Amino acid sequence: MSIALNADDAPQPPKVLSTPLEISGNLRQLQESHDPLIITFHERSQRFQSYLVDIDRESNMIALDEMIPRDGERYLLAGEPFKVEGFHEGVRIAWESNGPLTIDESGGSRCYRGTLPDEVIYHQRRNAFRAALKLAQLVDVDLDGEKLKAPISGKLLDISATGCKLRFSGDITGSLQLGQVYDRFVAALPFGKMMAPVELRYLHFEEKIATTFAGVRFHNMSGLVQRQVERFVYQLQREARRFDKDDF
């Protein structure tokens, strides 16, 4: 079953935001939602994760949280140019470094302060509906591939046409690398197993509940897998609407 995309769901061309008001407003969305950022240095393949922790339009300043892994800090302090990329509700928000950043530990935690970017790319590629699963119906998943020593088993928390959110017991952050493509992601959907390569876009260990959360994006999906995902999302949409009616 294929879900027809309407005009609102179609990919949109990227916009270039250039006024401080537009730039700070969109960056603030990333900050307030605690959306993870991917930092890449121009001459290097490794990716680093950070978060926006402060934005001040009046002083034309922004601050990024300590990088994970922290060894990216030395590239930053050496003045190497870098790119920052984040996603907020399906919108890609990206910008290039605008001069050097300095380390600030005055607030009791480590962050990097620098100048607000001159331009930000705002790209709403698709309004992908993200369907959450009920706790009693969580789907089993396995993450595997040449880049892993052994498969990692977890649960599917939500899914959209472009990716999904996963939950794993314990701290598995040492086994995974942001930006890496894992070629065997398997989800035990109600109507059969789905297998596809995925790119790791988000990784966070929540110490209080000893659980790792990961966000992955489907990578080079086949037509068959795309239809499986659409069918499952559609099924979850129908169940959600029925539940809302019953609740009402």
Walk me through this protein's architecture.
This protein has 248 residues and is of the alpha+beta class. Helices cover 17% and strands 42% of the residues. It is built from three helices and 17 strands. It has helices at residues 20-32, 73-77, 223-247, and strands at 15-17, 37-41, 47-50, 52-56, 61-65, 82-88, 91-96, 102-104, 111-115, 120-124, 131-132, 139-144, 152-159, 163-169, 181-189, 192-206, 211-218. The strands form three sheets. A six-stranded antiparallel β-sheet has the order 1-10-7-6-2-3, with helices on one face. The protein has a six-stranded antiparallel barrel with strand order 12-13-14-17-16-15. Residues 1-10 and 244-248 have low confidence and may be disordered.
Low-confidence stretches: 1-10, 244-248
- Termini Cα gap: 29 Å
Number of helices: 3
Taken from the alpha-carbon principal axes, the silhouette is globular
Total DSSP E strands? 17
Average pLDDT rating: 83
Order of helices and strands: EHEEEEHEEEEEEEEEEEEH
User: What is the rounded Rg?
Assistant: 19 Å
Roughly what percent helix?
10-25%
Placed side by side, the strands forming the largest sheet appear as 1-10-7-6-2-3
Range of strand content: 35-45%
> Could you say which structural class the secondary elements and strand pairing correspond to?
alpha+beta
**Biggest sheet record:** 6 strands, antiparallel
